[in-house]
Amino acid sequence: MILIVDDIRANIIALKKTLELHDIEVDTAESGEEALKKILKTNYCLIIMDVQMPGLDGFEVVKILSGNKRTKDIPVIFLSAISIEKKYIFKGYETGAVDYITKPVDTDLLILKVKTFLKIYDQQNQLKVMKDLLSKEIKIRKEAQDNLEVKISERTKELVSKNEELEMKNHELQQFAWVVSHDLNEPIRKIQIFIKIIKELYLTTDAKGIDYVDRTIKAAERMQTLITDLLAYSRLSSKVKPEKTDLNVVLQEVLSDFDYLIERKCAVIKTSQLPTIDSIPSQLRQVFQNLIGNALKFSGNVEIPIIEITSELIKTKDFDSEIAPDGKFCRITVTDNGIGFDEIYLDRIFIIFQSLNDRQTYEGTGIGLAIAKKIVDKHNGLITAKSQLGKGASFIIILPLQYEN
């Protein structure tokens, strides 16, 4: 809405009719004082004001409007037939008017200017609405971000607390496992000793009694092996700092431990050059012990067991990754020509206490491959196997050359 301020009613009527012909909504005031009262109650998008009026003249009204925060941005056009000298025009602009038009008025030009200011007013209102919406959006997002940060902080503290609690319980569990294994091993050792004494002193001529005693000793040995393996499995949760490890040295140590069994089975061991990686040597030693030990154990009735350990650098952490001389991962394969297994049981062989073979024929606790998998996982690696019944097995390990938490 536009406000026309003029002390001559005829001027107001003429200008009002001209503006209303162009569908422009108009309000009027016949003095500066009346104009101020209306401006304080109503939002106007433009004021067309006469300069010379009794009481408050146009300059004084605009000066008052300019000093008010709510009204200072309302555009004012001065319209005058008397005060047409340059000094009045300059004064009009100095007080804050946006234009100064002298009479006689070019109606078309006036309408053009009025419409322009109305358009500017609408655009300013739209910008203000957008600004308000944007401010609200920023406020909402900031509040959401602050809430999220608080929740993340609370969740982090909770996780840290839970982690500390878990580490403490893990430590307690390891201590418990050590105590239990010691307390269980002690009576088993005594059973083995006393059974051997009974055998040597009282059963030298009793074949049936000797057979029973031998079975008891073997059962005790199996129990002792099971306790040792369980203790080794529980210790894998403890944190140990990795170090540069030459896998060739680790492999040779393992092969040296199996010297007697390799010689007795007439086994052939083939090895290629292995890389140096960041690892926990004692744990990778367990991996090679379990894989090579299984290859010797499950050699079956083959005349010459053949075990081949090979290595190659690869591009990505993937079993089928292409070979790359500058790869960041190594693929180690332990292959044998033993009894093998059906691959439908592949998901079982790495689970603790799972065994695919008769434990009377092939002694074992069913923990070895579970230990191997847990160690490989702890080194950020992968392990799998390929096999066919009666055609041997291949165990494939992917390990990073550099350890990452």
Automatic annotation (TrEMBL):
Reactions accelerated catalytically: ATP + protein L-histidine = ADP + protein N-phospho-L-histidine
List the keywords (alphabetical). Kinase, Phosphoprotein, Transferase
Q: Which domain of life is it from?
A: Bacteria
Span of the signal peptide? none
Domain Response regulatory, residue spans: 1-118
Modification 4-aspartylphosphate occurs at:
D50
One matching Pfam family is: HisKA
Q: Boundaries of each Histidine kinase domain copy?
A: 179-403
Gene Ontology molecular function terms on file: phosphorelay sensor kinase activity
Q: What is its EC number?
A: 2.7.13.3
Name the chain's protein.
histidine kinase
User: Which species is listed as the source?
Assistant: Flavobacterium pectinovorum
Lineage in the entry?
Bacteria, Pseudomonadati, Bacteroidota, Flavobacteriia, Flavobacteriales
